[in-house]
Write a structure and sequence with these properties.
The complex is a heterodimer of chains A (118) and B (113). In chain A, the strands form two sheets. In chain A, strands 2, 4, 5, 6, 9, 10 and 11 form a seven-stranded mixed β-sheet that branches. Chain A has a four-stranded antiparallel β-sheet with strand order 1-3-8-7, with no helix packed on it. Chain A has no helices and eleven strands. Chain A is mostly beta strands. Chain B is mostly beta strands. The chains are: A mainly beta (118), B mainly beta (113). At the A-B interface, strand 4, strand 5, strand 9 and strand 10 of A face strand 6, strand 10 and strand 11 of B.
Chain lengths: 118, 113
């Protein structure tokens, strides 16, 4: 079956520009996560959606970063006034969330979007 | 702050050698622990996980990991590596209050034929 997809696979932009990165989760997965992976590092959590709402956005580095998931499926990560330090691979993951409780469901990762800010 | 440490950044082994990759976490509460693997050109995928019960967990492709609470460790092992195990390995944990993972910086494993 189809996995998590992300577009574009690569994005090159200039400092100060605005970018949008898209994530299509696995069908039926209600939980969606964004992570950022800088060179030589492990993925770092940015934001988690349960349905349409951001349940935890504590990982967003500053107010230039924003993410939406208006219909509870596709999500878009938006970065305003990009800086060279934003260059990284942005990963999306999705999971089946239980109706309640705190049990964990495996997160399935997409291939990532490699963002380069010149 | 909660964190995960992977002390081996780059490991080179010959085929059939035994593997042990270290992982230590700093968190005093209940944790759920994971090892993820990223093969060249592929997505991150789950190798194995520990929630509770038997501290020795077995995953895919002959990998296993042992949770030692007193040492805050969750080391990954494989008795005999293959060239196809060449990949980057990430240790991660999930604290019970959140659903997002905290990852280590990764260990790049290179297996020489």
């Amino acid at each position: 079956g189809a996995g998590v997809s992300q577009t574009p696979s690569n994005k090159v932009t200039e400092k100060g520009k605005y970018v949008e990165l898209r994530c299509d989760p696995i069908s039926g997965h209600t939980a969606l996560y964004w992570y950022r992976q800088s060179l030589g590092q492990g993925p770092e959590f940015l934001i988690y959606f349960q349905g349409t709402g951001a349940a935890d956005d504590s990982g967003l580095p500053n107010d230039r970063f924003f993410a939406v998931r208006p219909e509870g499926s596709v999500s878009t990560l938006k970065i305003q006034r990009t800086e060279r330090g934003d260059s990284a691979v942005y990963l999306c993951a999705s999971s089946v969330a239980p109706p309640g409780g705190i049990s964990y469901n495996e997160q399935f990762f997409g291939p990532g979007t490699r963002l380069t800010v010149l | 702050a909660q964190s995960v440490s992977q002390h081996n950044h780059h490991v080179i082994l010959s085929e059939a050698a035994s593997l042990e990759l270290g992982c230590n976490y700093s968190y005093g509460g209940t944790v759920n622990l994971f090892w993820y693997v990223q093969y060249p050109g592929q997505h991150l995928q789950l190798l194995l996980k520990y929630f509770s019960g038997d501290p020795l967990v077995k995953g895919i492709k002959g990998f296993e990991a042992e949770f030692i609470k007193s040492k805050f460790s969750f080391n990954l092992r494989k008795p005999s590596v293959q060239w196809s195990d060449t990949a980057e390995y990430f240790c991660a944990f999930l604290d019970t209050g959140r659903r997002a993972l905290t990852f280590g910086s990764g260990t790049r494993l290179q297996v020489q034929p």
